[in-house]
From TrEMBL:
PROSITE patterns: EGF_1 (PS00022), EGF_3 (PS50026), LAMININ_NTER (PS51117). The keyword Disulfide bond applies. It comes from the Eukaryota. This is Netrin-G1 isoform X7. InterPro entries: EGF, Laminin/Netrin_ECM, Laminin_N, LE_dom, LMN_ATRN_NET-like_EGF. Residues 384-419 form the EGF-like domain. Residues 1-28 form the signal peptide. CDD domains: EGF_CA, EGF_Lam. Disulfide bonds join C409-C418.
Length: 460
């Protein structure tokens, strides 16, 4: 008994390490959904949490302007050169390609000279406000992974709001306010993301950092995703394990970086001085040369591939899940309630695969996944989340803790801490040890599995 257990640990150790060689233990990749491993039972699939790569999401969006006829050039009009109100013979003409500035030019290849840009009509109806809504829609939930960067060709607006929607444009929430004077424009105290902390990271702020007053030359506006990530992952985002742990445990944090649509509300163009120069209203307009949005399809850690087909993004779901976001179990795989994959334990996560429906067994208990505070688990070594060997968590049933992050289990066992019998997960333990099987392991493990939840729920 002992001998065979030792042998199987040994066999698993050797083969797992050889299988894992092609996938170096780098945090935050989650780039495979499954690999084949060799156990004494032969080749078996080992399932992992997985997600698509982060990419340029502007290739997949639809853009809508409000008012729809706000783009300059129909009818043709002239506008003043940037920064020179006395050179007002530039022309915008929608019917002449060289003089037209349609919205697509916000998303084309940059680095061209002169740069291409979208431009609005001028503020000729002053004092009626010149306002434009630019709505970017993906018709798919996406997770932002890098700063949103908007590059203006005109001066940066005096007042602007960036908004987001999580329900395909039905409801909107502000993401960030931008103004030359936050108090005056929005009755908010000016703040910068650097003033925030882990605890206030979700606060919606008004910033004056990108206003015309600060640096007249810069034309860029950021929505700072990376600075917010850094509150968890540290400077230069070296400790992604900690960020992923927090994303796993805090739905609000995950949702904060998730959108289906973004809306840029341009509320007042750059004026530069205190008064609007009413004699030269052709000085005032909005022009944007580039918008950058990087992110990935949200597939609930059940897919690495997101396909763009028929102008629609869809996750290619694994783990027997289905739906645009892999948000439910496939038909005949509803043996337990659907659950998103989990980033933990680092680095491979937990797949939480859907399992075949077994009509004879009643509905198993719902997932109860409350991870302990991850930042408190990894204090010993900031580079590695100490997930499987610390004062709280130990590998069970003869499993060994590999690199502090993953239990390597004897062939018969599985689960984050090797706390489950493999046959139990597969539903093949035999009729007497299936549904009514008593929970295995020490009272401490039981407590822990209640605390953590497991890939397959224990039946109590
Ligand atoms: C922009 O959207 C807001 C919110 O729906 C709306 O109140 C406003 O009228 C819109 N502005 C324009 C110029 O369409
Ligand atoms: C999903 O179901 C197929 C059979 O339809 C099976 O071969 C495969 O192993 C299952 N995958 C997972 C992750 O359970
Ligand atoms: C998580 O742990 C850190 C470090 O021990 C602590 O400062 C923080 O307050 C904890 N957060 C929660 C939500 O318990």
């Amino acid at each position: 008994m002992y001998l065979s257990r030792f042998l199987s640990i040994h066999a698993l150790w050797v083969t797992v390490s050889s299988v894992m060689q092609p996938y170096p233990l780098v945090w935050g990749h989650y780039d495979v959904c499954k690999t084949q491993i060799y156990t004494e039972e032969g080749k078996v699939w080992d399932y992992m949490a997985c997600q698509p790569e982060s990419t340029d999401m502007t290739k997949y969006l639809k853009v809508k302007l409000d008012p729809p006829d706000i783009t300059c050039g129909d009818p043709p009009e002239s506008f003043c050169a940037m920064g020179n109100p006395y050179m007002c013979n530039n022309e915008c003409d929608a019917s002449t390609p060289e003089l037209a500035h349609p919205p697509e030019l916000m998303f084309d290849f940059e680095g061209r000279h002169p740069s291409t840009f979208w431009q609005s009509a001028t503020w000729k109806e002053y004092p009626k406000p010149l306002q434009v809504n630019i709505t970017l829609s993906w018709s798919k939930t996406i997770e932002l992974t890098d700063n949103i960067v908007i590059t203006f060709e005109s001066g940066r607006p005096d007042q602007m709001i960036l908004e987001k929607s999580l329900d395909y444009g039905r409801t909107w929430q502000p993401y960030q306010y931008y103004a030359t004077d936050c108090l005056d424009a929005f009755h908010m105290d000016p703040k910068s993301v650097k003033d925030l902390s882990q605890h206030s990271v979700l606060e919606i702020i008004c910033t004056e950092e990108y206003s015309t007053g600060y640096s007249t030359n810069s034309k860029i506006i950021h929505f700072e995703i990376k600075d917010r990530f850094a509150f968890f992952a540290g400077p230069r985002l070296r400790n992604m394990a900690s960020l992923y742990g927090q994303l796993d445990t805090t739905k609000k944090l995950r949702d904060f970086f998730t959108v289906t649509d973004l809306r840029i509300r341009l509320l007042r163009p750059a004026v530069g001085e205190i008064f609007v120069d009413e004699l030269h209203l052709a000085r005032y307009f909005y022009a944007i040369s580039d918008i950058k949005v990087r992110g990935r399809c949200k597939c609930n850690l059940h897919a690495t591939v997101c396909v763009y087909d028929n102008s629609k993004l869809t996750c290619e779901c694994e783990h027997n899940t289905t739906g645009p976001d892999c948000g439910k179990c496939k038909k005949n795989y509803q043996g337990r309630p659907w659950s998103p994959g989990s980033y933990l334990p680092i680095p491979k996560g937990t797949a939480n695969t859907c399992i075949p429906s077994i009509s004879s067994i009643g509905t198993p208990p719902k997932f109860n996944r409350i991870w302990p505070n991850i930042s408190s688990l990894e204090v010993s070594n900031p580079k590695q989340a100490n997930v499987c060997d610390n004062e709280l968590l130990h590998c069970q049933n003869g499993g060994t803790c590999h690199n502090n992050v993953r239990c390597l289990c004897p062939a018969a066992y599985t689960g984050i801490l090797c706390e489950k019998l493999r046959c139990e997960e597969a539903g093949s333990c035999g009729s007497d040890s299936g549904q009514g099987a008593p929970p295995r392991g020490s009272p401490a493990l039981l407590l822990l599995t209640m605390l953590l939840g497991t890939a397959s729920p224990l039946v109590f």
